[in-house]
Amino acid sequence: MTGHFRTLVLISALMGLFMAVGYLIGGEGGMLIAFLLAAGTNLFAYWNGDKLVLSMYGAREVDASTAPELVGLVRELAGRAGLPMPRVYIVESEQPNAFATGRNPEHAAVAATTGILRILTRDELAGVLGHELTHVRNRDSMTMTIAATIAGAVGMLAHFAFFFGAGRGGDERGSPLGAVGAIAMMILAPLAATLVQLAISRGREFEADRGGAEISGNPMGLASALAKLEAGAQALPNLQAEQHPATAHLFIVNPLSGGGMQSLFSTHPSTERRIERLREIAGAMGQGSGWTSATATGRTAPQQHGSHSSGTVPSSGSAPRRAGPWG
Known about the structure:
Blueprint: H1 3-56, E1 60-62, H2 68-81, E2 87-91, E3 98-101, E4 109-113, H3 114-119, H4 122-137, H5 140-168, H6 179-216, H7 219-235, H8 239-243, H9 261-264, H10 271-284, H11 293-300
Parallel strand pairs: 2-4
Antiparallel strand pairs: 1-2, 3-4
């Protein structure tokens, strides 16, 4: 099953779950209302999702005069990917991270945090931006916005099911739910929707890693970047993401703090698995690597209180490279 077909199947499953919850609340009428609600929320997300996300993070648009190195690199990679030049933004956040948004390649935006610009080399940043441009090319941002919107709406409907089912005994307004069924629906429906959403998100991340490796031409540059970003995300909080956890799937690494059970519901596959796949891609491209994720993570983790990382990473016996002046 190809990645795009699998995503289509999972999105269809989310829509089906949404309508099923509507049916259990109010019979055929409830199912129709659920369908109309899903269509309306997705239409709103389609036209306004990018503006909302950029506003949430206080993203500042830059151009060739205000951030020439960053904008020039994005332009070069977009040309390699056969994409129109996206808008470029910088987010004031010490946590190193990046995301892309927009309903299609003609209305796309790529955003990088000040933290990521501080610690990555040019090769590493090229891999990250190639990853984000792959999301743009595959229209993943819109796919994931739709998935997140439907999953959130399923949770909302499930709570309605509790009140309608438990409060009315399941006999009025065509609802087949009783109190026990309403409670079960309130718990199980959002859980099922979340698991489907996570399956979509994790699959899209693997595809974007492959695309980022191909666009940048340097799989291990992206692998090195992922190790640094994982260390940075664990060391430094992203306050905006903590306030808006539904947007976590947009970032190249999970921006939310926490572990344990929360890691089971992460919107991203493990960084170790992603790096291993990038190693395989590098091998298929005939590229060797003297780099290890443990070395990169140990040498480049960002520090607190505004101190800057050197942004260096060993590479096959050569001297460490200095991160570029990205802004």
